[in-house]
Write a structure and sequence with these properties.
Shape of chain B: elongated
Strand order of the largest sheet of chain B: 2-3-1-4
Order of helices and strands of chain B: EHEHHHEHE
Number of domains of chain B: 2
Largest sheet of chain A: none
Number of strands of chain A: 0
Number of helices of chain B: 5
Helix content of chain B: 40-55%
Radius of gyration of chain A: 24 Å
Distance between the termini of chain A: 17 Å
Shape of chain A: globular
Structural class of chain B: alpha+beta
Radius of gyration of chain B: 25 Å
CATH architecture of the largest domain in chain B: 2-Layer Sandwich
Distance between the termini of chain B: 13 Å
Strand content of chain A: under 5%
Order of helices and strands of chain A: HHHHHHHHHHHHHHHHH
Number of domains of chain A: 1
Oligomer: heterodimer
Largest interface: A-B, 72 and 76 residues
Strand content of chain B: 5-15%
CATH class of the largest domain in chain B: Alpha Beta
Number of helices of chain A: 17
């Protein structure tokens, strides 16, 4: 019988017999030897069970918070962008800070689903769906800010290359126009990736559905998926390709977001380190948010066998690595500012650390550089509540990073006569605060109606998926 | 219901991935051509068991990449075209003393559109090759079909197959380890 597997059984190299490497115990990705049926019941059970009371309370609470964004935007649209604190010389203010903050959070989802998929990191399977959902919702929150910052939001469609009454087109030399393409592509591809990965799971929910609306809802979304090997073959190839496409995409999006700053001829912004530094920061903040979301979800739904200590360890280590990269970038910016011997650049950085926004700078450094260093210690990685608290510090720190970058430079540019100090208004605060509610509303709906984990992928990493039953 | 409707095929249920893995090779060796495996997750190496290897020693390969490539190439040139058309041809726009069109400065636009169109090509290519959306399928009539998304594995040999014979195929499926071998009929029209 010709089989693809006969020649893959390789002889172990001679050297291994001599050095006798120690055998390390590998922590299984699904603990307690759970069966395939248990995994299906567990994940589908979350969606099929009666809506728990806590869900309603959280949902109402989240809606109430989301209404703050509604109020903020209502005031803004009815009276104009002057309601925000942006003014000369700080014309971007919180709008750009919040935009970059949410977009950055959105990066971990694609990192987990795409880059870790290409790197064959099997532990990603139980966290990828949740983080892809996080990506999509975070990008929605991000989109609000530039959309309303254009001033007359009803003309926002002018950003797209659609013929309009003025008979002129978008200006493609502007990094802001590149951003329109980068962010809208990122949003669309993230949704495609999220949705395509969900199709087999939606089919499982369809086949288990008892109520008529569920049969129609999941039946429609699953497109008639039938679990056949042909379907799986094309699906796996498509999934791999989307992972391959999303990897350059995720790196490009934050690169282009950083161009919004780096292309401008302003001290503190006009540096080539921005693209890699922004991407590292985005992954850092994204993993922070993944932990902030998934640790409570794991506790509430009892998913400890599916998201186990190995997953938490790995997420902590990625946070540590990217946090250290970000810390290195902060240090390197200072070095280059000194080494480049440009007095404006040098001033921009001394001003960052000791100038008018010194407090924001040191909040950023303590949250982003010092906090994640705690993850070197195993005892801290195993203390789940503490990991959760640190993950929130990471989010806070990354918001302040964007605040520091955007505001210190603009408030102290070349001419002292044009210096100023930026403070947000109540409308700014309401709008930003509400986005957390908006995000939570969407995430709660996701938990309630869509499969939290990719069933087939989680099953694939169990021993039961091995066609050779462990003999090979 | 049981005895009405057009016959679609014979279904045999298997309990583990390794059972269906070995059974699939036997169905192929017996010379069946119109048949399919239904599994709760992609089973590694099942393609080779079902269809064997090609001349170069590879298992059957999905054709999705062709759609991805077509999408990507279309996206790249669409990006190039819109920038040239909008900023250099239809309404030449001077900004920053730079040329009206160059393949360099708007590269992010080409790049993003390449990925966008390639992603759509991939998704729709997958749909096209899988003949989706198709909201009904005869195998859905099998009472245990739902379990193939859960923890059961199923082989269905279609009536279309030239080698198909009600009794012989049923015996064969039992012999290779299939449980609860049963006939699937398409639902009657209503």
């Amino acid at each position: 019988m010709s089989s693809a597997t006969t020649d893959t059984v390789k002889q172990s190299p001679e050297i291994l017999k001599k050095v006798k490497p120690a055998k390390l115990d590998e922590v299984p990705l699904v603990l307690n030897k759970r069966s395939l049926h248990w995994i299906t019941e567990k994940i589908c059970g979350i969606v099929e069970a009666k809506t728990p009371a806590w869900w309603w309370w959280c949902f109402i609470f989240a809606l109430a918070i989301a209404s703050f964004t509604g109020m903020g935007l209502l005031v803004l649209v009815s009276s104009g962008v002057g309601e925000w604190g942006n003014n000369n010389p700080v014309n971007w203010g919180w709008a750009i800070v919040n935009f970059v903050f949410w977009i950055g959070i959105g990066h971990a989802g694609t990192l987990i689903s795409a880059i870790l998929c290409l790197l064959k990191q099997k532990w990603r399977t139980s966290i990828n769906r949740g983080s892809e959902a996080m990506t999509v919702f975070a990008v929605m929150c991000a989109g609000i800010f530039p959309l309303f910052h254009v001033g007359r939001v009803w003309f926002a469609w002018w950003l797209f290359p659609i013929p309009n009454a003025n008979n002129i087109w978008p200006q493609f030399k502007s990094p802001l126009e590149w951003d329109v393409f980068a962010v809208s592509t990122y949003f669309t591809v993230s949704i495609l990736f999220w949705y395509m990965g969900m199709i087999p799971d939606l089919a499982v929910l369809r086949d288990r559905a008892q109520k008529m609306w569920r049969k129609y809802f999941y039946g429609f979304l699953s497109m008639g998926w039938n679990n056949s090997n042909t379907h799986w073959r094309n699906f796996e190839m498509a999934y791999l390709l989307l992972a391959g496409l999303s990897t350059p995409l995720v790196l490009s999006v934050h690169t282009i977001v950083s161009f919004d700053f780096a292309i401008a001829n302003l001290p503190g912004w006009h540096t080539t380190i921005f693209p890699p530094y922004f991407v590292a920061g985005a992954i850092f903040s994204g993993f922070g948010m993944v932990m902030t979301l998934l640790l409570p979800v794991r506790a509430v739904f009892g998913l400890h066998d599916l998201i186990n200590q190995k997953h938490i360890d790995n997420m902590c280590k990625i946070t540590l690595a990217t946090g250290s990269l970000v810390g290195y970038a902060y240090a390197m910016e200072f070095f280059i500012a000194w080494y480049g011997a440009n007095s404006y650049e040098g001033f921009a950085f001394i001003n960052r650390a000791f100038g008018n926004y010194w407090w924001a700078y040191w909040i950023m450094v303590s949250c982003n550089v010092i906090c994640p260093q705690l993850f070197w210690f195993k005892a801290i990685r195993e203390n789940t509540p503490l990991v959760w608290v640190i993950s929130i510090f990471v989010n806070v720190g990354m918001w302040f990073e964007r605040f520091v970058i955007a505001n210190t430079t603009l408030s102290r540019d070349f001419l002292p006569s044009s210096w100023g100090y930026y403070s947000p208004t109540v409308v700014d605060i309401f709008t930003f605060f509400g986005t957390f509610g908006f995000f939570s509303v969407l995430f709660l709906l996701f938990l309630r109606f869509l499969p939290l984990m990719p069933l087939a992928e989680v099953k694939s990493v169990t021993p039961m998926a091995d066609p050779h039953a462990g003999k090979h | 219901m049981a005895n009405k409707g057009i016959k679609y095929g014979l279904a045999a249920v298997f309990n583990t991935a390794s059972e269906i893995y070995t059974a699939a090779a036997k169905v192929r060796d017996a010379g069946y051509t119109s048949w399919e495996c239904y599994t709760p997750m992609p089973v590694h190496g099942l393609d080779a068991q079902m269809y064997g290897l090609d001349d170069k020693g590879f298992p059957v390969r999905s054709k999705v990449p062709r759609f991805t490539l077509a999408g990507g190439v279309t996206g790249f040139f669409t990006g190039m075209f819109i920038v040239w058309y909008m900023n250099a041809f239809d309404y030449p726009l001077i900004a920053g003393g730079k040329p009206y069109f160059s393949p360099i400065f708007p590269f992010p636009v080409f790049y993003e559109l390449t990925i966008l169109f390639a992603a759509f090509g991939t998704l729709f290519g997958m749909f096209f090759l899988n003949r989706l959306p198709r909201h009904n399928h005869p195998v859905f009539e099998h009472p245990k079909f739902g379990r193939t998304g859960d923890d059961k594995f199923m082989i269905v040999v279609e009536v279309e197959d030239p080698k198909f014979d009600d009794d012989e195929t049923a015996d064969f499926l039992k012999k290779i380890g299939g449980k609860s071998v049963s006939l699937i009929r398409e639902p009657e029209e209503f």
